[in-house]
Amino acid sequence: MNNTELRGAFSLATVYVLRMLGLFMVMPVLAVLAVSYPDYSPLLVGLAIGGYGLTQALLQIPMGLLSDRLGRKPVIVLGLSCFALGSLVAAQAETLQWVVIGRILQGAGAVAGAVMALAGDISRENQRPKVMAIIGIAIGFSFYLALLLGPLLAEQSGLQGIFWFTAVAAIACIPLVLFVVPSAQNLSPSGDTLPKLADVGSLLADKSLLRLNISVALLHLLMTLMFVNLPKRLVGLDWPLTDHWMLYLPVLLLSVLAMAVLMRFGKQGKQGPVINLSIVLLGLSLAAMAWLQAPLMALLLFCWLFFTGFNYLEANLPAMVSSLAPAGKKGSAMGAYASFQFFGAFVGGALSGLLNQYANEQFSYMLAALLCLVWLGLIRGIGGGSIHLKRYSLNLNSEAMSVQDSLALVSRMAGVRDITLVEDEQVLYLKVDSREFNLQQARQQLGIIS
């Protein structure tokens, strides 16, 4: 990676981390601190925790498309401004209803697609996976960091302090985007980074992709539901909010180790059974949490089971979407996937809040466990795809060979499983078996200059 790619990768990763911290830091604390608002209700708590997911789901694809028209950086700055505005509204809120409105405004800063597209624009084709990997690691890291920092910051400055922090962080990201993130130098083929409206409908009709989309919606529904209830349970066990990080830290570390074991089995061609096992772990942990008198050690064990299953699915579902998406339509597939993901978080918050208001916490957990049983039936048979499938995009050299001749040549190459030509971009999108396909040889035969 050259200096431009390194600077772009780490600066965009920083933007992502600070933005996701703002969304996630309130999750482990809001259910406890919300009781101080005069209009407190369990339903409003659920909406405040998951409300960001509604606008994220609705605007994820439109904001990505807008970045193709207005440019990546203007759209990212617009998204960060919306996020900062929502944080300020929530920070100054005197009622829980206004906190909900602030969280919904936070979600309007749906810049994930534009950030990923910009990351593609500033990186060379052979270095693009590394840039994307750095940003992907940062996204996962931000969630764990939020669980640890949220209770500490809330103890020092309350819920309002968290929202003030996220507002300042979002505003600080704007000059970072404008002056530190490199401007686009070689535009990446948009099919692998940005959604296209013409593709979304057909991808939603794909049964395999639809099952994965519903899976990530259920996953984040369950995660949000748990955080509507878990912090109050810990406080009820005489653990003050400021000490919750000491409970989360070992649970998260041990769950990452357990996930690594599951990943090893998955790489041995057993991905389908490991996915089923992860869902079973989620269901068992949620069913066990319905035991409202569980001692602390038992509750931490249930959390460990939950996060082990959650971590594996969170890491592997996107890879499965990428593998199953047709060549040249990865951006559209991932845009739809992200929309389902955030919508699941919204439904989880609203559903758990509603159940806590009109039923009880125990009923919420049992319903969540039942959803895992339904999920097992839904996902049955998936996960058996080849782990050797990879994607490439080739910018054609029309001076060396005509577009149609290039297409015919590539279609005859060993290992090519799917191919899409976008004539307007002069790009071939390939899905290939890495054991048979030789990228360097393909570039040489097509006369593509590195």
TrEMBL record:
Instruction: From the record, give the transmembrane residue ranges.
Output: 12-37, 43-63, 75-93, 99-119, 131-150, 162-181, 212-230, 245-262, 274-291, 297-313, 334-351, 363-383
- Any idea where the Major facilitator superfamily (MFS) profile domain is? 8-387
Q: Give coiled-coil spans as residue ranges.
A: none
**Cellular component, GO, one term:** plasma membrane
Q: Which UniProt keywords apply?
A: Cell membrane, Membrane, Transmembrane, Transmembrane helix, Transport
Membrane topology reported for the UniProt record: Multi-pass membrane protein
Question: What protein is this chain from?
Answer: MFS transporter
Cite the InterPro entries for this sequence.
MFS, MFS_dom, MFS_trans_sf, MFS_Transporters, Sugar_transporter_CS
